[in-house]
Amino acid sequence: MRHPCLVLIFLIIGLIACKKIKTERPPCSDAEVFIPIDTSYLSTPLIIPTHLIEDKLNQVIGKVLREDPDFEHLNADGEKEGLKMKISRLGAIKVHWKNNVARYQAPLQVLIEKQIISSNVMPALENLALKTAFSLRLIFETTLDLGTDWQLKPKTRFVSFEWLSEVKALGGLIDIKKIVERRIYKTMPDVLRNMDDTIRNGIHIDRVMRRVWKKIQRPLLINRNAPLVWLKIHPIQFEMGKITTKDGNLMVQGRLSATTETILGDTPVYTVLNRLPPLIKHPTLPDTAFLYIRTEIPYDQINTVLNENLIGKTFPVSGRRIKIKSAKIWGCGDNLFLQLLVTGGVKGDVYFQGKPVYEPSTQTISIQNFDFEVHTAEVLLSSADWLLHSTFKAQMQTALSIPLQTQIVKIPDAIIQGIENGRAGKKMDVQIDAWDFRPQKITVQPNALTALIIVHAKVRIELERLGKN
Predict the structure, then answer these.
(1) What 3-state class would DSSP assign to 7?
(2) Helix 392-399 crosses helix 299-310 at what angle (to 10 degrees)?
C-alpha cells in the first residue's frame, strides 16, 4: 500500500467523526398510576323565569276554582245554606316576587243562586231563587320553600280583595255584598289549603331534580379527536341556599358537590346512581364554581409535534454535528423518557429521562431533573464522553416544552357543548363566565400525561322549561 499513513489518518478521522454506540431501552412497568381527585363544588344561581311559574300556576290552577252545583251543599259548619256558587278565573294569574314570596292576583267571576224557599216546603217553587253575577279580584301571597325530601312547601295567605262590579240582586233591591264578604272570609281557610295542595301536587321539584341527577351522570364528550375523551361526573349531593329575586325572576342558590374523571373510548362504560339524596339546606352559599378536572395529553399527540420539530434537524455540539432521525417520548413510573435516533458525531439511540412540571408563567409543561438515562450515560462515558458535558442535553430539554394552553382553552366550550348536546341542555341555558384555570399537578401515565386542573368560574343556569309533571 502506497500511503498507509494516509489511510490510517482517514480511518481515525472517520472513527472520531461518527462514533457508533449501542444502548438499550430502559425497562418499565405499565402499572396504572392512581390519581386522587378532590371534591368539586359547582355553586350556581338557578334562575327560574317568572313566566314559567305563571304558566305552571295557570296550568295547575284551573279556570273553575270552585263549584257548588246544587242547593244541598253543606258549609264548613255542616249547615245547608241553600246556595249554588261557581267561581271562575277571568284572566291569567300574574306573579310578582319579593325574595321567596310570590304575590299574585286573580280576577274572578262569581255566579250565585240563593234559594228563597226550600223545595221541601213548597216543591212547586223549587226553582225560585235569587241569582246574581259579579266579579272581584283576590290577592294572595305564597311563600315557597323546599323540604329535605325535595317536596315543595308552599304557604299561601290571603292579602285582600277588590270589587270589580256591583253586587246586587232583584234589580238592585237587595245588596248581598256583605253576604259575599262573609262567605269569602269564612271559606278562605279551605281555599288557601286547596291552593297549597294544588301547587304542591302540581309542581314536582323532586321529579325534575331526579331527572337532572341522572342526566348529569352521563359522560360529556370534551374531545372529539381520536381517542375520544369524556368527562364523567360522580355527584355526591345537592345543597340549597337563599331563595331570592333578580330582575323580577326567582333565583335559587344551589351547589352540587361531585368528583370527576375522564374516560377514553368511543362508547364509555359507566354506571348511574339512581337515588336522589336528601337536599342539604344552608342560610347562604358561595356563587363560584370550584372544579377539579383532569385533562390528558396522549404521547402519540406529543410525539407527532416532537417529530415535526426535531426530525431532520442538525445541532452543533462541541465542534461536531448531531442530526436527529427520529424522536419518541413515553412515560414510566413518575418519569418521562425521550428516545432519540441520531447520526453525525454519534450514531445510535440516545435516551433521556426527567420529571414533568407545570410552568404557570408560560402555561407549558417542562422537564425538570432532565439528564441522560443511566445506561446511556455509562455507554457515552466510555465512548463519547464529550456529549455528556455538551449543550445537547439543554437543547433537548428546551425542545420538550409542551404547551398546555391549547388543552385548557378547549375545556369551557367542550363542557357547554356537552350540556347542550344532552337532553338537560334542552331545558336550561348554561352561561359560564370568568374562567380561571390553575393546573396543579402533572402525572405520568402509561399512555398519556395527565394534568389536574382547578377551575374557578362564575356559572349561571336559567331554566327554559319546568318539564312535565
Answers:
(1) helix
(2) 130
Sign of CA dihedral 199, 200, 202, 208: positive
Nearest to 351 by CA among 328, 317, 367, 325: 328
Give yes or no for a contact between 392 and 385, defined as CB atoms under 8 angstroms apart: no
Give which of 371, 316, 372 is closest to 344, Cα–Cα.
316
Q: Which residues of 155-177 are buried (b: 16+ CB within 10 A; e: fewer)?
A: ebebeebeeeeebebeeeeeebe
Number of Cβ atoms within 10 Å of the Cβ of 102: 24
Name the one residue in this structure whose C-alpha cell is 363566565: 433
Other residues' Cβ atoms within 10 Å of the Cβ of residue 24: 11
pLDDT at 11: 41
DSSP string over 193-235: HHHHHHHHHH--HHHHHHHHHHHTTSPEEEE-SSSPEEEEEEE
pLDDT of residue 15: 42
Whole-number mean pLDDT of the chain? 79
What radius of gyration do the chain's Cα atoms show? Answer: 39
Q: What is the pLDDT of residue 167?
A: 73
Which structural domains are found in the chain, ordered by start? 51-203 (3.15.10)
Whether the Cβ atoms of residue 326 and residue 340 lie closer than 8 Å to each other: yes
Cα separation, 383 vs 92, in Å, equals 92
How far is the C-alpha of 238 from the C-alpha of 7, rounded, in Å? 84
Among the listed residues 96, 94, 117, 91, the one whose alpha carbon sits nearest the alpha carbon of residue 105: 94
pLDDT over 50 (residue 13): no
Q: Which triple of cell numbers denotes residue 271?
A: 354506571
Are 330 and 317 in contact, with CB atoms under 8 Å apart? no
Contact 58, 52 (CB under 8 A): no
Instruction: State the DSSP code for 283.
Output: S
Is residue 227 pLDDT above 80, yes or no?
no
- For 312, how many CA atoms within 13 A lie in the half-sphere containing its CB? 3
Strand pairing partners for 372? 352
The C-alpha angle with vertex 434 and arms to 431 and 437, in degrees rounded to 5, equals 115
Between CA 409 and CA 337 the distance in angstroms is 27
- Number of helices and strands in the chain (H, E): 9, 23
Tell me the DSSP string of 34-88: P---PPEEEEEEEEE-HHHHHHHHHHHS-SEEEEE-STT-B-TTS-B--EEEEEE
- Count of C-beta atoms within a 10 Å radius of residue 128: 11
Q: Model confidence at 324, in pLDDT bands (50, 70, 90)?
A: very high
Alpha carbons 341 and 316: distance in angstroms, whole number: 16
Residues 255/43, Cβ–Cβ less than 8 Å: yes
How many Å apart are CA 80 and CA 82, to the nearest integer? 6
